[in-house]
């Protein structure tokens, strides 16, 4: 099946999260508000706006079972939203509860724990706030994971045991912490990451191979393997036993988001505008292809075979004309007004998430990006990278000769 | 608008500031050791070049590249060694030489190309040589290699 593309907005989508039944969607359109969309047929319509933050929302997560939404923002706050009947009309509306995060920099990423009794908020304050509900005082309280984080935390991901937390940070490290909260958690069974796990135990610390920020982290479905994507155009997979670490360096632009689809496959995406599939096991990992079979996309028809490939944009042509022909005209020349890139997403993909399961495999993933599109992909439809379409800009640059 | 405040170094008021040295592992050798090794590599490169083994020479030169603030002499010598190889390779052979390198060596070569281009007056090498190598290397190793050159703080 070709990917389903939904053109949600003309502005970037910073974060997206579906509800359990996948008929509602919360997104942030690069603004202070989160918008809830409802699906009717093939259309998404905005039904409610969650307005409470006073700076841009950076991350959203919708807890599937307890049906609560948590939003994190640059205003250093997080809100938990719950549906409650409106006092006047009786209709169900989303009501916010402030979470006391106690951080002095922007919140960057938020994720509910698997049991939905805690959530983790990453922040620029070199700390991760682990938030749990204090029933006595009827509010969300937070406890900080601080050591040994040296810079902004960019992403977090929970281990299925509800205690361990992975975090990727701008100090070029991915770490695994214990986020054990005595009041909430039962004593966890020993895992490959360790057996004694008081709060803020560092169970692992791994560095990106060429000094890139760690943009995204993810535990495998079993929780026994950790993957992280780095700004040095690499993705790393860690088996903690040895530890065995596989670094896969790719030839294209950096990946910024990833999700596991099975114990042996990862889908990751980023500045190259297409979701890439990686596959492997403890013996080794490799890039196996892309979900973006550009031949099926409508964009492919225009200029797909042009020597400059995706670089066939008006900006590129303007420079080329100025360089080779001495022509200066604003916005490109002649019939080269086509600004479409040859991938389904027209700009950086900022978020990829599991959408649909088949047994224990993720059959479909959803992506959103700077182009304002939501795309749902079949995660098994991996096509090999060809020189002109895949192999990223390397192949595309192939035809670009500097004369 | 007064923008002088933007130039204030706020980090000096932060006692827990992130230091450059925390961002990467220090180079394992001291200056003298590194220079010794660079000299050894230089002579190994010469003998490989004498046999006409350009990929071999380049691999030797790019291996264990010195980085960091304390090994300036070794860094300069290694750069000179590499520039000699680049200069003496026929442009028709460049692609096959690059393809024979490991991924680590390709990334290291990209660092040296940029360092070469950053030299005042481009050192004693013509710009077209560096640009020619850069073009071929980007075709083979991709823009990912350029990204790694930019992110890596282990400056050569």
UniProtKB/TrEMBL annotation, chain A:
Gene3D superfamilies, alphabetized: YVTN repeat-like/Quinoprotein amine dehydrogenase (2.130.10.10)
GO MF: actin filament binding
GO CC term, one of those recorded: Arp2/3 protein complex
SMART domains, per the entry: WD40
Stored InterPro entries: Apc4-like_WD40_dom, ARPC1, WD40/YVTN_repeat-like_dom_sf, WD40_repeat_dom_sf, WD40_rpt
Main location: cytoplasm
Highest taxon listed in the record's lineage: Eukaryota
The WD repeat ranges on this chain: 50-82
GO-annotated biological processes: Arp2/3 complex-mediated actin nucleation
All residue ranges annotated as the Anaphase-promoting complex subunit 4-like WD40 domain in the record: 111-183
PROSITE patterns assigned to the protein according to its UniProt record, in alphabetical order: WD_REPEATS_2, WD_REPEATS_REGION
Pfam families given in the database record: ANAPC4_WD40, WD40
Location of the protein in the cell: Cytoplasm, Cytoskeleton, Actin patch
Family statement: Belongs to the WD repeat ARPC1 family.
Function: Functions as component of the Arp2/3 complex which is involved in regulation of actin polymerization and together with an activating nucleation-promoting factor (NPF) mediates the formation of branched actin networks.
Protein name: Actin-related protein 2/3 complex subunit
Natural source organism: Pleurotus ostreatus
From TrEMBL, chain B:
CC per GO annotation: Arp2/3 protein complex
Primary localisation category: cytoplasm
Keywords (A to Z) from UniProt: Cytoplasm, Cytoskeleton
Short name of any one Pfam family annotated for the protein: P16-Arc
Biological processes annotated in GO: actin cortical patch organization; Arp2/3 complex-mediated actin nucleation; regulation of actin filament polymerization
Subcellular localization: Cytoplasm, Cytoskeleton
Family, similarity comment: Belongs to the ARPC5 family.
Function summary: Functions as a component of the Arp2/3 complex which is involved in regulation of actin polymerization and together with an activating nucleation-promoting factor (NPF) mediates the formation of branched actin networks. Functions as component of the Arp2/3 complex which is involved in regulation of actin polymerization and together with an activating nucleation-promoting factor (NPF) mediates the formation of branched actin networks. Arp2/3 complex plays a critical role in the control of cell morphogenesis via the modulation of cell polarity development.
Name of the protein this chain belongs to: Actin-related protein 2/3 complex subunit 5
Organism: Pleurotus ostreatus (Oyster mushroom)
């Amino acid at each position: 099946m070709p990917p389903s593309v939904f053109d949600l907005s003309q502005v970037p989508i910073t974060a997206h999260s579906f509800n359990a039944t996948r008929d509602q969607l919360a997104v942030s359109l690069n603004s202070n508000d989160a918008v809830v969309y409802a699906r009717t047929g093939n259309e998404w319509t905005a039904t409610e706006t969650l307005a409470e933050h006073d700076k841009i929302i950076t991350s959203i997560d919708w807890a599937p079972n307890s049906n609560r939404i948590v939003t994190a923002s640059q205003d250093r706050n997080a809100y938990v939203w719950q549906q409650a009947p409106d006092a006047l009309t009786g209709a169900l509306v989303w009501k916010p509860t402030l979470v006391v995060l106690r951080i002095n920099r922007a919140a960057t990423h938020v994720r509910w724990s698997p049991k939905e009794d805690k959530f983790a908020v990453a922040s620029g304050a070199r700390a991760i706030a682990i938030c749990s509900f204090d029933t006595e005082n009827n509010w969300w309280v937070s406890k900080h994971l601080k050591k040994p984080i040296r810079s902004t935390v960019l992403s977090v991901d929970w281990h299925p045991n509800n205690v361990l937390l992975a975090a990727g940070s701008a100090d070029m490290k991915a770490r695994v912490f214990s986020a054990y909260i005595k009041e909430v958690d039962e004593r966890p069974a020993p895992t490959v990451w360790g057996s004694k796990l008081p709060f803020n135990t560092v169970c692992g610390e791994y560095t990106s191979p060429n000094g890139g920020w760690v943009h995204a982290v993810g535990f495998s479905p079993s929780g026994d393997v950790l993957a992280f994507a780095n700004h040095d155009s690499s993705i790393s997979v860690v088996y903690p036993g040895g530890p065995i670490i596989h670094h896969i360096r790719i030839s294209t632009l950096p990946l910024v988001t990833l999700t596991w689809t099975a114990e042996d496959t990862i889908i990751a995406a980023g500045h190259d505008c297409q979701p890439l599939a990686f596959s492997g096991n403890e013996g080794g990992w490799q890039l196996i292809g892309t979900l973006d079979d550009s031949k099926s996309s409508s964009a492919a028809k225009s200029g797909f075979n042009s020597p400059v490939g995706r670089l066939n944009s008006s900006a590129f042509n303007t420079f080329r004309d100025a360089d080779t022909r001495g022509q200066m005209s604003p916005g490109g020349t002649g019939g080269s007004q086509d600004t479409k890139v040859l991938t389904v997403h027209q700009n950086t993909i900022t978020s990829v998430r599991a959408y649909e399961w088949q047994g224990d495999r993720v059959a479909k993933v959803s992506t959103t990006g700077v182009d304002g599109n939501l795309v749902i992909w079949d995660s098994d439809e991996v096509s090999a990278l060809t020189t002109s379409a895949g192999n990223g800009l390397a192949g595309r640059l192939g035809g670009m000769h500097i004369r | 608008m007064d923008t002088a405040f933007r130039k204030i170094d706020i980090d000096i008021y932060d006692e827990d500031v992130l230091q450059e040295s925390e961002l990467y592992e220090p180079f394992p050798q001291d200056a003298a050791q590194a220079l010794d090794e660079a000299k050894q590599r230089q002579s190994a490169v010469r003998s490989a070049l004498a046999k006409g083994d350009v990929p071999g020479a380049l691999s030797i030169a790019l291996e264990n590249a010195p980085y960091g603030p304390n090994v300036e002499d070794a860094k300069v010598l290694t750069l000179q060694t590499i520039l000699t190889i680049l200069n003496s390779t026929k442009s028709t052979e460049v692609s096959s030489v690059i393809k024979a390198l490991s991924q680590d060596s390709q990334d290291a070569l990209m660092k040296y190309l940029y360092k070469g281009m950053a030299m005042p007056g481009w050192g004693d090498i013509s710009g077209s040589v560096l640009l020619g190598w850069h073009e071929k290397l980007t075709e083979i190793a991709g823009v990912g290699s350029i990204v790694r050159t930019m992110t890596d703080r282990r400056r050569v």
